Inverse folding.
C-alpha cells in the first residue's frame, strides 16, 4: 500500500487490521463509483475505525477505485482533517478528481511494473524536458510553440521523442512518468 497518511495512522491501521473493515476498501472491491465520507455517521461496527481515523487527522474524504486494462487495481484517495466535504464540492470537483485518479494510477502502475531503461531516461534533452514541463502546465502544442518560439511540428517532435524515451502511450502519461522519475517538478 502506497500512501502519505500520517505514520501514526498507518501504524494503527496495520495493527488493528483495518484493511479488512475499511468501508472505502470494501466499496472499492465491488464498485467503480467513488466513495465519499464526511464525519462519523456510520454503522456501529465501523465506529472505532472512524474514531481512530478522525483522531489521526482523517475526518472526511473521497476515494476512487481504479483499475488498469491489465487488471492492476488501486484506489486514489484525498482526505481532509477538519472541514467536511460538501455535496456541491463533490459535484464541482468530480471530473478533475476522476481524471487525476486515472492518471495517477496509470503512472504508478507503470512505474511499479517496469521502469524504462535508465540510459534512455538520462538522454531526454533539455528541450524535451522543457516541453514536458509546459505540457504539465496544461499547455497545448500550439501554445508551447508560441512560448518557445518554435513550430508546433517541432513541439510535437520533442513530445514524441520524450514519449518514446519514457515508454508512455500519450502526452499525459509521459508527464506523469517524468514527474514520477524526478525528471520534472
Amino acid at each position: 500500500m502506497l500512501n502519505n497518511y500520517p505514520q501514526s495512522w498507518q501504524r494503527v491501521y496495520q495493527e488493528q487490521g483495518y484493511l479488512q473493515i475499511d468501508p472505502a476498501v470494501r466499496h472499492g472491491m465491488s464498485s467503480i463509483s467513488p466513495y465519499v465520507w464526511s464525519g462519523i455517521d456510520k454503522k456501529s461496527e465501523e465506529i472505532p475505525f472512524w474514531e481512530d481515523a478522525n483522531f489521526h487527522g482523517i475526518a472526511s474524504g473521497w476515494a476512487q477505485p481504479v483499475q488498469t486494462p491489465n487488471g492492476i487495481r488501486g484506489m486514489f484517495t484525498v482526505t481532509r482533517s477538519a472541514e467536511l466535504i460538501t455535496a456541491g464540492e463533490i459535484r464541482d470537483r468530480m471530473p478533475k478528481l476522476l481524471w487525476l485518479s486515472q492518471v495517477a494510477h496509470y503512472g504508478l502502475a507503470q512505474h511499479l511494473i517496469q521502469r524504462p531503461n535508465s540510459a534512455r531516461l538520462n538522454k531526454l534533452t533539455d528541450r524535451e524536458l522543457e516541453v514536458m514541463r509546459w505540457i504539465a502546465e496544461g499547455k497545448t502544442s500550439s501554445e508551447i510553440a508560441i512560448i518557445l518560439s518554435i513550430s508546433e511540428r517541432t513541439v510535437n517532435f520533442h513530445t514524441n521523442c520524450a514519449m518514446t524515451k519514457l515508454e508512455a502511450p500519450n502526452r499525459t502519461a509521459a508527464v506523469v512518468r517524468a514527474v514520477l522519475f524526478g525528471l520534472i517538478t
